[in-house]
Design a protein that fits this description.
Layout: E1 22-24, E2 28-34, E3 37-42, H1 46-60, H2 75-83, H3 101-111, H4 115-127, H5 130-144, H6 147-162, H7 166-172, H8 178-184, H9 197-204, H10 216-235, H11 248-267, H12 269-280, H13 286-303, H14 308-321, H15 323-330, H16 336-352, H17 354-363, H18 375-384, H19 392-404, H20 418-429, H21 431-441, H22 451-456, H23 464-483, H24 485-495, H25 497-502, H26 510-525, H27 529-538, H28 542-551, H29 557-571, H30 575-589, H31 597-620, H32 624-635, H33 640-653, E4 661-663, E5 669-671, H34 677-680, H35 685-688, E6 697-698, E7 710-711, H36 715-726
Antiparallel strand pairs: 1-2, 2-3, 4-5, 6-7
Protein name: Protein phosphatase 4 regulatory subunit 3C
Pfam family, one: PP4R3
GO molecular function: protein phosphatase activator activity
Length: about 725
């Protein structure tokens, strides 16, 4: 007998048309059914949560794309709220006294679960100027070292922040109150000793005006934004699942402050002009310039909060003021911090408009004689010279270069020549800078190494940081192979670049050898016969096959990648490469039997030979009529005159078939020429030789010159030779 699963009802709740349901984190639905009675449904899968949410929205006639079904006011509470006199709408607050701090803390904590009670409490706090009274009590408690009172004030201030009301934030974050708010949040009851956030904000964190800000409102807004951001990121604990939306208004408060700061700075052209002037002035002190660059970095970071159209206007303003020429100057400086900040600014510009950056750099050669000072070359050099052992900056710069040379974002209809012009510029002025480390580390001889070491291994990029850099360069070159068909092809051929890259197959760093192999794999993947001929002529499979053989029987990523390369050639049936591999390397590879790749290549090779042979045979079948006529002549016993007449007629019919192949009685073929030198001179050597002295005819297969087959020559063949000599 099978046991039936016994299910018990844990919760039954009717969907009320007026209850505010809220979906959180894709797997949670929360709501309140009565005062101080909150419920939550948690789902293991998002699909289950979405299904129930759609049912709730269907009952309430709401859009399922919303995360809250309606204004969070319970029907019964709303009716009571409307029936009360106006003065009764507010929560009755206890007197703001030291003795009642615990009562106040309990009240603030209790209303957080009810949206309508939160609203009422917020109104009460605003109407009575309660916040400033509480902060006065904080000063009193701190002066008296009243830890119990300070702990209650922590709970009160934290709860007021969770009321999520912008009107309260305006009071709490004003210049008069914000430091006292921070002070209250230092006394977390869970901590043995209070934090020292005010000390950090007033003494450690210093506000530096790189250029004096005359607008007092702007200065106040900058101070306020920094401090509120500090409260959100550092002081307040990470909210729980039920609290995650309590601080959404705080996030919006910071967001709109940043928008206002950027707008005010953007409108102050005098201020920005002065910043650019000092930034590019050679007389500016290094410390001052560092501060200016860091200011611009933060300025650009704030701009990310703007709406798209406002962000466009912001970056256009910077472009008009000369941000790119300024970056060109500061990225060429020796100060690492300045260069790092300039790189961050450059990344914002590239992300905003690659075309704007490309347009600027293409105008540079007309203004500068030295390629080294071009902006893109400065970026490449900074990538190459990154001092970080993990090359974090180099990875960032490589991503920016990739964006700039990506044809996918060069397809603007307003400028159809951008792709051609920029790629021509890049390969003429910048590619040699990018490949310089690669070419330097893959030279045939390294003078800094002992002679015996050079003979064993012509390259030794064994330094891990160097290997990482070469891997980044190869990644970018591989991208070029995929997306720059014409320009990169010419560069590879002219510099014999693939040969130099494949030298890295000797590296002890497997990831670098794999990068070199990937570069070759992308080239072969194009199935371009121009590349194939280059590979065959240079015998460029040799270092790959040597790496495979040196790897031995180890089953690793390098082994699999090399096998995949040859498997691709086999599957795609790249005939020229198959013939080259089998002709030159099959003896070294035929012992590898754990995969059928190389036997498959041999099979493809043999199939192609057979196909060519059959094609040649079909071509020669047109000459069979001549053979049939000869057979008829052998079987007829007629006089010599008639035979001679028939032979002459035969010559006239076959004058246009001078070079057609002729099949011998053993089904092999050879080419015969009716107007041979012997016939023209009247030689009759074949008729003068006895049958026994006729030498065997060798197969004249011009496609396979190594063919050794011989044909047996019988009397009919001799008679045919006599006939031909008479003709």
């Amino acid at each position: 007998m099978s046991e039936r699963l016994q299910c018990s009802l844990l919760l039954e709740s009717k969907i009320s048309p007026n209850t505010a349901y809220q979906k959180q984190q894709d797997t949670l639905i929360v709501w309140s059914e009565a005062e101080n009675y909150d419920l939550a449904l948690s789902f293991q899968e998002k699909a289950g949560c979405d299904e129930i949410w759609e049912k709730i929205c269907q009952v309430q006639g709401k859009d399922p794309s919303l995360e809250i079904t309606q204004d969070p006011i319970d029907e019964s509470e709303e009716e009571r709220f409307e029936e009360m006199p106006e003065t009764s709408h507010l929560v009755e607050l206890p007197a703001c006294e030291l003795a009642r701090l615990e009562e106040i803390a309990d009240l603030v904590t209790s209303v957080l679960s009810s949206p309508i009670r939160r609203e009422k409490l917020a109104l009460a706090l605003m109407s009575e100027g309660y916040i400033k009274k509480l902060l006065q009590l904080f000063r009193t408690c701190e002066d008296q070292d009243n830890r119990e009172g300070l702990h209650h004030l922590y709970e009160i201030v934290r709860g007021v922040l969770f009321l999520n009301k912008a009107t309260l934030f305006e009071v709490m974050f004003s210049d008069d109150c914000i430091m006292d708010v921070v002070g209250c949040l230092e006394y977390d009851p869970a901590l043995v000793q209070p934090k020292r956030h005010r000390e950090f904000l007033t003494k450690t964190a210093k506000f530096k005006e790189v250029i004096p800000i005359t607008d007092s409102e702007l200065r106040q807004k900058i101070h306020q934004t920094y401090r509120v951001q500090y409260i959100q990121d550092i002081i307040l604990p990470t909210p729980s699942v039920f609290e995650e939306n309590f601080l959404s208004t705080l996030t919006s408060f910071i967001f709109f402050n940043k928008v206002e700061i950027v707008s005010m700075l953007q409108e102050d052209e005098k201020f920005l002009t002065e910043v650019f002037a000092q930034l590019t002035d050679e007389a500016t002190e290094e410390g001052k310039r560092r501060e200016l660059v860091n200011f611009f970095k933060e300025f650009c970071a704030f701009s990310q909060t703007l709406q798209p159209q406002n962000r466009d206007a912001f970056f256009k303003t910077l472009a008009n003021l000369g941000i790119l020429p300024a970056l060109e100057i500061i990225m060429g400086m020796d100060d690492l911090q300045v260069r790092a900040a300039a790189t961050d600014i450059f990344s914002y510009l590239v992300e905003f408009s690659p075309s704007m950056v490309r347009e600027f750099v293409m105008q540079e050669p007309q203004q500068a004689d030295d390629d080294d000072v071009l902006l893109i070359n400065l970026v490449i050099k900074q990538m190459i010279c990154d001092s970080d052992p993990e090359l974090g900056g180099a990875v960032q710069l490589m991503g920016l270069l990739r964006t700039l040379i990506d044809p996918e974002n060069m397809l603007a209809p307003t400028n159809k020549t951008e792709k051609t012009e920029f790629l021509s510029f890049f390969y003429k002025y910048c590619m040699h800078v990018l490949t310089a480390p690669l070419l330097a580390n893959t030279a045939e001889e390294r003078k800094d190494l002992p002679e015996e070491t050079t003979k064993v291994n012509p390259v030794c990029p064994d330094n891990f940081q160097t290997a990482q850099l070469l891997a980044l360069i190869l990644e970018l070159l591989t991208f070029c192979v995929e997306h720059h068909t014409y320009h990169i092809k010419n560069y590879i051929m002219n510099k014999d670049l693939l040969r130099r890259v494949l030298v890295l197959m000797n590296s002890k760093h497997t990831f670098l050898a794999l990068c070199a192999l990937r570069f070759m794999r992308r080239i072969i993947g194009l199935k371009d016969e121009y590349y194939n001929r280059y590979i065959i002529k240079g015998n460029l499979f040799e270092p790959v096959i040597n790496a495979l053989l040196d790897n031995g029987t180890r089953y690793n990523l390098l082994n699999s990648a090399i096998i995949e390369l040859f498997e691709f050639i086999k599957v795609e049936d790249i005939k020229s490469l198959i013939a080259h591999i089998v002709d030159n390397f099959y003896k070294a590879l035929e012992s590898i039997e754990y995969v059928q790749t190389f036997k498959g290549l041999k099979g493809r090779y043999e199939q192609e030979k057979d196909r060519q042979s059959r094609g040649l045979s079909r071509y020669r079948r047109d000459a069979r009529s001549l053979e049939d006529d000869e057979e008829m002549w052998f079987n007829e016993d007629e006089d010599e005159d008639e035979a001679e007449y028939m032979g002459t007629k035969k010559v006239k019919e076959s004058e246009d078939k001078e070079n057609l192949p002729k099949r011998t009685p053993t089904a092999s073929f050879k080419f015969t020429f009716s107007h041979s030198a012997g016939a023209a001179n009247g030689n009759n050597s074949a008729s003068n030789k006895p049958a026994s002295s006729a030498s065997p005819a060798r197969c004249s297969n011009t496609y396979f010159p190594h063919c050794k087959c011989l044909t047996n020559v019988d009397c009919k063949t001799i008679k045919a030779l006599v006939l031909n000599s008479h003709i």
